[in-house]
Amino acid sequence: MIVDSYAIDKVLRRFSEAAGGCRIAILTNERKVALMSGETARRAPMMSLQELYRVYTTIAAKPGEPVPLAAFKLSKEETERLFSVFDEDYHISRFFHFSEAGDEKYLVDGESVTHVAIDAEISSIL
Questions:
Q1: pTM of the full predicted structure?
Q2: Strand partners for 54
Q3: CA 48/CA 46 separation, integer angstroms
Q4: CA 15, 20, 26: angle at the middle one, nearest 5?
């Protein structure tokens, strides 16, 4: 099969501009790299859910126990962004339980919180 990669790139560029920087990848013999928009890059977590849960289980006495968000040793901005991204995803957020107990306050998805408890059942989606 002969592929005109210039024509494909020309078509993809139109889709890319219309979608705000997103590219649709077409399978050819070449591997196309999808570009990430600025908004997607800002919303991407800097730590995977699996890594976050691993850190949580080293801090918490047992799964489901609340721990201070400050114990994750991230900057305030990183902590707020990381937990907000996971809290916005319904399939993930149902395992997260935020509370306010008087320590350093963080804004997670618009709510003022200080602690998080993560259900052990989250391992079913890891």
A1: 0.65
A2: none
A3: 7
A4: 35
What b-and-e string marks burial along 17-29, b requiring 16 or more CB atoms within 10 Å of the CB? eeeeeebeeeeee
Q: Are residues 31 and 52 in the same domain?
A: no
Per-residue pLDDT tens over the stretch 61-85: 999 999 999 999 999 999 999 999 9
Co-location of 60 and 98 in the same domain = yes
Asked whether residue 19 falls in the same domain as residue 80, the answer is no
Q: Do 82 and 89 meet the contact criterion of CB atoms below 8 Å apart?
A: no
R_g of the chain computed on alpha carbons: 20
For residues 31 and 53, membership in a common domain is answered with no
Handedness of CA 38, 47, 116, 90 (dihedral sign): positive
Mean per-residue pLDDT pooled into runs of 10, the chain (126 residues): 54 52 48 47 74 97 96 96 95 96 93 97 94
- Domain with 67, as residue range(s), is 45-125
Q: Are residues 80 and 92 in the same domain?
A: yes
Number of domains in the chain: 2
